[in-house]
Every structure is written in C-alpha cells, then in structure tokens.
Amino acid sequence: MSGIIWTYQKCPGCGGRFPSSKGGFPIICAACKTQPTKFQIKIPWQKQRITISRDRDGRTLHDFNHANNLLGQIRSEIQAGIFDPEIYKRQSATAFRAFWLKFQETYRHSPSTYAKVTAIGKHHLGSLLTYQMRDIRAYHIADWWQELQGKGLSAHYLNDILQWVKRFFGEAKDLDIIEKVPRFPRAKSLPKQDIQWYTEAEQVAVLSHLPEYDQPIFDFLFLTGVRVGEAIGLQRSDVDMVRGRTVIQHTIKRDGSLGPTKNRKPRVIPHVPEILDCYKRQAVKGLKYMFVNKWGRRYSDDYLRDTFRRACLDAGLEPIKLKNATRHSFGMGLIENGEDIWTVSKAMGHSDIRMTEHYVKVLAKRTRGLYGRRKCANGENEGVLTIGNKG
Which of 90, 106, 131 is the C-terminal boundary of a domain? Predict the structure, then answer.
C-alpha cells in the first residue's frame, strides 16, 4: 500500500534517526527502545509527495496509533477516488476558526453564555482568525490585544474576552491541537465597584412580586447569602434535618455541570425557622436538587436572573444584578447588625478577609455622612456638629 509514517525527530538516547513505517509496526529506535512524540504521513499522489501532519480536525499526530488510523483513512480515500489533500491543508490553516466553532457549541445549553462566546468569535477575534493555531505566538496575542483595546470596550468586557480566549487555548492544548498555550498579557485593572444592596423592606417588596412557586429559592438566597450557582446546585443529600444544618459544597458551573464551590471549601448553614420554611414552601419536590422549577427540573441561572429583574421593576426598584443583590444584601445586613468582620467573612464564604473589609468601608462611608457639616437657615456653614456635655 502507498504511504508511510515517519518522523523528523531523532532518538533522544543515541541521536540516531527513527525508521519509517508503512503502518504494520510502530516506530521504535532499535538500540534505545524509545519512540518519537510527533509523526507525519507521506503519500505519493498524482506524481506528488504529499506530507500530512494533522488530521481533519487539525490535531497534531502525537501518537502512532493516531497516525496509523489516519494513514488507513487516507488510503481508503485514495482507493475510492475521493482523496483531497487540500482538505487537510485548509483545516490546518483554518483550525482556529474551526475549533472556535466547536468550542462555542459546547456552551449551547446555556443561551446567555453561548450568545457571549458567539459574539466574541464574530466581533472580537480579529487578526487571530488569519493564523494557524499552531503558529500563534505571544507577539500575535499582544498585537490582537492592542487592536482589541482600540475598540472602546469597557475594561470589564475586555478582561472577559481575554479570559474566554485563554480558556479556548487551554482546551486546544488539552486536545493536542497546540503544544502549549502562548503567553497572554495581563488583564486590565478594574475600578472598584460600589456595593449595591436592598434593605429588608425592599427585599420584601421584590419577593412579593415574584411568582409564588419561585419565591423559596429567592428567599433562601437573601437569607443565606449563598451564590446563585450554590443555591441551584444544592442537593437534598446536603440538607441534614437530623443535625439541623445544610452544607454548601456544590455549585453549578458555567458549562452546566456540578462542581465544587468557588473556594473549594464546604461551609455549614445552621437551620433556623426561616430557612426550614423555604424548604417546606418548595411546591415541587425534586428527586436530587432541593430547589426545582414548576416542571420539576433544576433551575437555570438565566431564568432566575430574568425573573428577578422583572420583579425588581414591578416593585418600582432600580434593578440590581441578582448575584450582587442577594449576597450584598446579606453581607451588609450582618455588618449593620454589628457582626464582627470574621463572622461575616466565614458566613459569606470569602477566601480573603479583604473582600469582607469592603463591606465595612461602605458602612463607614455611610456613617461619616451622618456627621457631615450642616448649614444654618441662611445657607452658611455653621460648622461641624459637636457632641458632648455643655458647660
């Protein structure tokens, strides 16, 4: 049969060349018994010698069995008269675009994430789409990053794009499409965001405008301050009615799979009457998850976010992101009630106490406003209000 498997690598032991193979036996150095880690296929076709180093999906031939299977496939195509070497060349040349399309398809189950990844691929990959993935180096990434920053996008969105492209290259490496991930630039520094939260009265107003069958999970989020993914991923096995506690140890990741919490440390929530009431009011009982929708299926982040936003508008409030509203409201409530910072940090599952200090600074800023300068009736500054005994 036509075609051979060979490698340009040399034996790391003796420095000699590896033999070629027609596919009947693996390539091994006879003296050192070592094997190469990269392979190529040479095929005589129409008075030409075609060299192929990747399969139709753009994957490098790192394994002899992979190369042997591809050689058999090519021989079958030649025998059937359908072999076209340009398919392999085009696939290699457009591997970035082709693999990005496959990459974004893995997020189709999540409409918002799929829309985000699709938008990045359509509008923000720019010059990267013109290169073969195996040829992209750090300076190509740097040029693309500089080009991207000239689009007038927010720092937060720029960093989000950067993280998605880094994840994309990481998956390409895991699948042997590239040998290593090129060096990426540092993310842009973000301005500190103000903490937004709802008072207890505002929380009650929002909850009253939510569908009755959805209220238990939202009430649970406000009462405990757990992350949205942690509430969605709460399983019945995590709720211990005998010991009177709930263990938060799972979360729903972006790809929809169940994984560990953000800091990978379980935390315990004691059962108080309000939390037990959330469990009791759950109308539809799920077999696995504690909170399920009216169809008995696990909640989705998109559904909870959209439902919460509508309830905020119906209550006449400025909408706040769900992940901020519940956690920030819980954290600020604890701080305002006089709980010490260590207790608050542990209750919220913060891995760094500095994250919790942000809440204290917000409260201190509000408190300072109470002791500001007041004005006389004529509008002139009277001075700083002093507190103390007269006499």
Answer: 90
